[in-house]
């Protein structure tokens, strides 16, 4: 008599209620906003920052509301997206760029009770107004300078080993090494040594008398290879950092000779993304200088923690660097015996050897850990024509985060302590684990892709879903009457479940994803068409109505499962070998197949059972 047990109805109702709750956040449109966070995780963002930012907006005549102070950031909501960029510039001018990052954001309007149960809106791709676009430029001059500094030290070492005594070896303008000699014999010996040891350098002789010179420069081909390496290394590092942020379907690709495009669809915390992506963080390990050390061989640094700086002051460290952060292969957050945060570091084989060699001779001395942050700050100036232009000025901040006594010789694994908070330890571990940037970068362009850019895509996408849905509903009602109504109700449930599952999984909806939804709308009723056609066939063969319903659902089941599984296999393959938009289409299609099987088989059967089950039926409206 086509009766469902009561528990099945409760199960279906529970699934539908679950879908409604987790799909509902997509009805709440986010507010355009600006977000303020610290350049460092250790920086406290308090109400005074909110007050200064709001005053800057008031002075600029920009309307705002809903100022919120979070754990590590301040969020101010605006009335329109057109006001975001002017608001960002006004706040940045008021607060400065040294300590604060101001970024564009979209603030959620989802009710708190939904957030408490983990319900959040579906992420939208860049083509549907839900992401951030960064254009970054790599400072390739720095990689050339760093290599020339290394060559300078190596040239000195090789010349001393060859007994080619030199008067001086200096790096001029970060691009040319000049070695000076007293005699032609010494210069000839040095020239043959450098040609043998440094084939990548172009050498030429100059000078006269007792001031004979060898000038060494990198060839244009070598410089181009270094620049290509810097951009490629930064690409890899940025991809690692984006993956650490957990962004779905990011785009990180090279543009031109020294620029990189980063697109982060579905990002909510753009300030955090900008802070992590834009930083050039590194470590240097140096021994503390002895009291009688010459001033030329040591350097003074302050501590990164303001409280420790106030209590203990800075320290003198040797100029000689033991190892840098590029020797780090892994970094994890941990806690010491007293419960304070620390970073457990693993070095590569060369780094471990250098660390061991430096520390076994200096047991009992203190070793300093320098945390280095390189960033580019915009500086406005007036050019010769009287126009205001903005230049990116490179600043480097080196501060001590740890100054600890060497208890025994260190190897490939050791720990860095003295960190101010778990957040600071987490940030350092993330930056080191993701890899060091080969050269600093600065932001050339930043924008949030909003409805103004994706409005046409959204409009066309929504229209396609509406037209497809309406056409299917009308066709099903005309063709199958009451059974068509049941199929349409199941189709609506399927759409709710599809949106809910995509929201829960954090899948990013793109324009190809909308195409997957349109395809799902058509495929979702395929199963019902198979079932209803089988019921009609059984009725024509003289089978009673209730028996025809049972036979229709039971006999079509295996065909429906086979058809959907084959399509699901294709979707999985598309996701595995595709990227970007193709993956967005595959994800939507896969979820749609699974939800449509539930709604078409179990949901439609439940509705038909409510209409016809448990009573004698003479005729079916099919």
Automatic annotation (TrEMBL):
Membrane topology listed for this record: Multi-pass membrane protein
Domain of life: Bacteria
Protein translocase subunit SecDF P1 domain: residues covered: 231-288
Keyword Protease appears in the UniProt entry: no
InterPro entries attached to this UniProt entry: SecD, SecD-TM, SecD/SecF_arch_bac, SecD/SecF_CS, SecD_1st, SecD_SecF_C, SecD_SecF_C_bact, SecDF_P1_head
Gene3D superfamilies assigned: 3.30.1360.200, 3.30.70.3400, Multidrug efflux transporter AcrB transmembrane domain
Classification via PANTHER family: PROTEIN TRANSLOCASE SUBUNIT SECD, PROTEIN-EXPORT MEMBRANE PROTEIN SEC
Name of the molecule in the record: Protein translocase subunit SecD
Source organism of the structure: Microbulbifer epialgicus
Lineage, uppermost ranks: Bacteria, Pseudomonadati, Pseudomonadota, Gammaproteobacteria, Cellvibrionales
């Amino acid at each position: 008599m086509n009766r469902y047990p009561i528990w099945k109805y409760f199960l279906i109702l529970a699934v539908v209620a679950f879908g409604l709750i987790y799909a509902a956040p997509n009805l709440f449109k986010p507010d355009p906003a600006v977000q303020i966070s610290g350049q460092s995780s250790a920086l406290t963002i308090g109400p005074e920052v909110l007050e200064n930012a709001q005053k800057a907006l008031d002075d600029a005549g920009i309307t705002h509301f809903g100022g919120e102070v979070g754990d590590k950031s301040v969020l101010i909501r605006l009335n329109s997206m057109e006001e975001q960029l002017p608001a960002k510039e006004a706040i940045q001018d008021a607060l400065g760029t040294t300590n604060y990052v101001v970024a564009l954001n979209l603030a959620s309007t989802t009710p708190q009770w939904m957030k408490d149960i983990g319900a959040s809106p579906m992420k939208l791709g860049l083509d549907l107004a839900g992401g951030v676009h960064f254009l970054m430029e790599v400072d390739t001059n720095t990689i050339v300078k760093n290599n020339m500094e290394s060559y300078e030290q190596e040239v000195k070492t090789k010349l001393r080993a060859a007994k080619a005594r030199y008067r001086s070896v200096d790096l001029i303008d970060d691009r040319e090494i000049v070695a000076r000699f007293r005699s032609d014999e010494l210069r000839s010996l040095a020239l043959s040594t450098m040609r043998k040891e440094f084939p990548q350098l172009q050498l030429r002789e100059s000078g006269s008398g007792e001031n004979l010179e060898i000038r060494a420069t990198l060839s244009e081909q070598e410089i181009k290879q270094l620049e290509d390496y810097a951009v490629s290394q930064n690409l890899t590092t940025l991809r690692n950092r984006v993956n650490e942020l957990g962004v779905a379907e990011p785009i990180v690709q090279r543009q031109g000779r020294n620029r990189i495009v980063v697109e982060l669809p579905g990002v909510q915390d753009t300030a955090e993304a900008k802070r992590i992506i834009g930083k050039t963080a590194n470590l240097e390990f140096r021994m503390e200088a002895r009291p009688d050390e010459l001033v030329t061989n040591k350097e003074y640094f302050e501590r990164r923690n303001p409280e420790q700086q106030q209590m203990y002051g800075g320290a003198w460290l040797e100029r000689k660097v033991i190892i840098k952060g590029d020797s780090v292969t892994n970094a994890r957050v941990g806690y010491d015996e007293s419960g304070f945060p620390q970073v457990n570091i693993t070095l590569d084989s060369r780094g471990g050897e250098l660390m061991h060699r430096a520390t076994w001779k200096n047991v009992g001395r203190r070793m300093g850990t320098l945390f280095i942050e390189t960033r580019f700050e915009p500086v406005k100036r007036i050019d010769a024509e009287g126009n205001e232009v903005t230049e990116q000025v490179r600043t480097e901040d080196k501060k001590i985060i740890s100054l600890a006594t060497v208890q025994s010789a260190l190897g490939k694994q050791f720990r860095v302590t003295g960190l101010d908070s778990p957040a600071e330890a987490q940030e350092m571990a993330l930056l080191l684990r993701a890899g060091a940037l080969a050269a600093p970068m600065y932001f050339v362009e930043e924008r949030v892709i909003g409805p103004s850019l994706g409005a046409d895509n959204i409009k066309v996408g929504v229209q396609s879903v509406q037209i497809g849905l309406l056409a299917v509903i009308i066709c099903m009602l005309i063709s199958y009457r009451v059974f068509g109504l049941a199929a349409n109700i199941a189709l609506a449930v399927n759409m709710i479940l599809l949106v809910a599952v995509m929201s829960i999984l954090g899948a990013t909806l793109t324009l190809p994803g909308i195409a997957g939804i349109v395809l799902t709308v058509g495929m979702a009723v395929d199963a019902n068409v198979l079932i209803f056609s089988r019921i009609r066939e059984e009725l024509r063969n003289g089978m009673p109505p209730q028996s025809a319903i049972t036979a229709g659902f039971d006999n079509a089941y295996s065909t429906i499962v086979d058809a959907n599984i084959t399509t699901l296999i294709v979707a999985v393959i598309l996701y595995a070998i595709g990227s970007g938009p193709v993956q967005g289409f595959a994800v939507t299609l896969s979820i749609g197949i699974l939800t449509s099987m539930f709604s078409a088989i179990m949901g439609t059967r439940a509705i038909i059972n409510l209409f016809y089950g448990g009573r004698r039926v003479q005729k079916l409206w099919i």
